[in-house]
Amino acid sequence: MTTEINFDGIVGPSHNFAGLSHGNLAATQNAGTVSYPRRAALEGLAKMRANLALGLTQGILLPHDRPNRRWLAALSTDYAHAPPLLRAQAMSASAMWAANAATVSPASDTTDGRCHITAANLVTMPHRSHEARETRRQLAIAFADPAHFAHHAPIPAPFGDEGAANHMRLAPTHGEAGIELFVFGRSGGAFPARQSREASAAIARAHGLDPARTLFIEQSNVAIGAGAFHNDVVAVANERILFVHEQAFADREAAHAAIRQAAPWADIVEVPADAVSLADAVASYLFNAQLVTPPDGATTLIVPVEAAQNGRVAAWLDRMRAGNGPIRRIETVDVRQSMANGGGPACLRLRVVADARTIDPRFLVDPAKLERIAEVITDHWPEQIHPGQIIGPKPDLALVDSIDAARRALIDLLGIPELHDA
Question: How far apart, in whole angstroms, are the C-alpha atoms of residue 365 and residue 359?
């Protein structure tokens, strides 16, 4: 049976706060502070358990091999001798944010009736630009059946592509044909726009999407400048519902009109700026939420605790909940370690609409498997990482050994030996 599956990135043992992501306000504000990889990974597992409790199907993607020695070798160095900035970039655990792993078009939208997947190139930020190879490797294993899945190489540089974080889909139900929305940017003042229109258009062509059901919408420069480095910081879609901030798009009226013309059945739930400012939206990650449809049919918004703790955001959520709108339930999750690095609940997951029986079961989880994963994390993930261990004058090579051992233990538990040779 076709359903939507959330594939969450397991937070890797190298999770640290190096502040490498220009334009990501949380990441830069927390640069140089102590990180807690074990806590971060367990927070992510708790979110997955909550999804399972709602009746959702849940998958996982694994941490990448860190530090990325292959990338450092291409730069004619190794971890022990690399400059501090390169060490930090090679050690980044940012692959945890699976929303940036790829753009996914379900079979009901494509001309050949297969689910199409394009791994994101992430070329805008050096610390993420070396993720595509390992991401493609995992996706090729998880979605290996050529009768149901088609894989595409990342879009070539310099056309930046950041995956599903800048892609939305509206459909009457997940399994029916829908419209796909690609949101691209130009600039946000001092902050770079990370998704190019050229990359979005190339993906739409590769996936065989119907031009009549494919929209290209420009992200607001004001939103980018306020810290919405990806569209999913100011908008999220699920089935018929688009949940969006008033200032998300460069031309709000034109964008809404195009959506209504292509999908007259769509329901746009817009949050006005005078109720929730862009600053509040970015600080609380109200829109970087999971908008999902559990089996009981009650569309549910899964927000971080920061949204509930922001007075203006909480007040708006209370008004929405008291009304008779299409979002019927609000759930709260604690992913503070991810939030401190600039990634909310939506950042941590890649949405795939498919039949779970066509997917490698090693990448699907149930409560029992999550418990076994939690045991590995508790036993092997570093409790904390101090910035000096990575960017200090002398790198902590014992930390590297422990990170290697942690990842090997997880791969062995899940029985995916193909990933040992990263």
Answer: 12
What pLDDT score does 27 carry? 62
User: Could you list the residue range(s) of the whole structural domain that residue 282 is in?
Assistant: 2-419
Q: pLDDT at position 256, please?
A: 98
What are the start-end ranges of the H helices in 110-156? 126-129, 132-142
d(C-alpha 187, C-alpha 200), whole Å: 16
Token pair 């490698």 is found at: 360
| Positions of E strands within 75-132 | 102-105, 115-119
Lowest mean pLDDT among 178-192, 255-269, 273-287: 178-192
For 419, other C-beta atoms within 10 Å of its C-beta total 20
pTM assigned to the model: 0.96
Q: What is the pLDDT of residues 198-225, one digit of tens each?
A: 999 999 999 999 999 999 999 999 999 8
Three-state SS at 246? coil
State the pLDDT at residue 1.
85
State yes or no: cis peptide before 67, omega within 30 of 0.
yes
What does the mean pLDDT of the chain come to? 95
Sign, CA dihedral 85-157-290-315, equals: positive
How many domains does the chain fold into? 1
The CA distance from 399 to 388, in Å, is 11
Alpha helices, DSSP H, located in 359-396: 367-380, 388-391
Closest-CA residue to 104 (of 112, 87, 116):
116
Active site residues: 162, 230, 347
User: What are the CA-CA distances from residue 238 to residues 86, 216, 313, 398 (Å)?
Assistant: 38, 18, 20, 44
Q: How far is CA 209 from the centre of its chain?
A: 22
Taking alpha carbons only, the member of 55, 49, 35 closest to residue 343 is 35
Q: What CATH number did the domain enclosing 410 receive?
A: 3.75.10.20
Q: Exposure of 76 by Cβ count < 10 A (0-12 exposed, 13-18 middle, 19+ buried)? A: exposed
* Average pLDDT for 373-398: 96
Helix residue ranges per DSSP H, 249-366:
252-262, 278-284, 305-309, 311-322, 336-340
